[in-house]
Amino acid sequence: MSSKTTAPDNKNALRAYLQRAEVRLSTMHRIAGAFLGGAGLLLLLPTFLRDAPVQVFGVINKAVPMLSVQWNLPSLLIVIALGLPVVIAYTIPVYALWLLLQDLTLFYFSVNTPKNVALGKTDKPIFHPRFSLTAIPFSDDEPSDLKKQLRAIQFGSSLKHSVLPHVHKDKHWFKALIEKEREEEEEEKQVALPDDSWLEECPTDHEDDRSALCAAFGLAGAYNHDLVTEVAKTELSLIRHNLNLKRLVLRYMKALLTLVWTTLLSFMVLAGINDIMPEKDLIVVVLGFLAWAIITPWIVRAPTRWVYRGHSQHAAGGINDRYLARFERLVIAGCFLAALITSGIAGLFVGWAFIWLGPVGPGLALARSFGWLKYDLLRWL
């Protein structure tokens, strides 16, 4: 490192940045923790719906024999036609919660670690997902004798057992990684902390413990860094957390809105069922889930519209997260299919021809999501 980098003023500036960065990372993780708790609450919300699918399918089951005679169609075909929109309606909130939990997991773990790359080799590298908050190593810019003394205490005293198990057989995780690393060339070792000059004062009488502790350092991301490298790594970590947290917030809002809307519609449908007139109950179910299929695309896209509301070109000029856009398209495609089925059945029951226009809304929303329609009139989609 150059003398300019190791100058006291530069060191103070680097340390000040690290302090600010730690505060920001702590704030980001508190926000993510709130979403983790919120996801748990969302998982409790479906308990209020435990009777809704049962009652809805009960209505369908009662109406199937009557419709099979009226329409001269197999009962199985009628069950599929009536049940598919209901299955879609209750599957989408579950899928949204699944994706939310997936994003929460990926927020806390990083699979793209710097050394998880095969260096010019055709063999696959060792895969070691790492917690997003890595360990903080003692800087190489500090006095070398002090760092060597720290390593000697860590590797030579009983403190090492705060990381390493006392029982030898419990070290199999580290042992397997060590054996894999020993097969590699020195410059291609990917995980373990290098056994370099910083460890020259460490005892060598317990080689297995020494190798296992080096592997533990590597798995935690505690590699030897100077202050400049540590600041560079921390800044990149902030960028990663920012991008993941942005997706997490939008994912949470989409899951929450979808689940709340499906819950409210289920309550309204159940309120219209009286178990006395099966045909009337079936009309309520069909019209209710037709309304769900028409309105849901607008609801699931609402957070994105809110974010881009201040941009006059939010549809053409915005850059969408492809993972969020894929979820929206799957939801809208499911709503289009549900609207197609329920509008056809509702038209036969009620006789109102305009009901057959039900799939138009989800169809336009689906086309809009792929960029096929770019007119200002359709920006609300």
Describe the structure.
- The chain is mostly helical and 381 residues long.
- 64% of the residues lie in helices and 1% in strands.
- The chain has twelve helices and two strands.
- It has helices spanning 3-6, 8-44, 52-71, 75-108, 144-156, 172-182, 207-219, 227-271, 278-300, 302-307, 322-350, 360-369; strands at residues 109-110, 130-131.
- Strands 1-2 form a two-stranded antiparallel ribbon.
- The two termini are 55 Å apart.
Summary keywords:
single chain; 381 residues; mainly alpha; two-stranded antiparallel ribbon; 2 strands; disordered N terminus
Summed over residues and divided by their number, the pLDDT gives a mean of 80
Amount of beta strand: under 5%
Looking across the biggest beta sheet, what order are the strands in? 1-2
Query: Number of DSSP strands?
Result: 2
Helix and strand sequence: HHHHEEHHHHHHHH
What is the CA-based Rg, rounded?
29 Å
Number of domains: 2
Percentage of residues assigned to helices: 55-70%
| SS summary, helix count | 12
What's the main sheet like?
A: 2 strands, antiparallel
> Quick one: overall form?
elongated
Secondary structure category: mainly alpha
| Spans where pLDDT lies below 50 across 5 or more residues | 1-5, 117-122
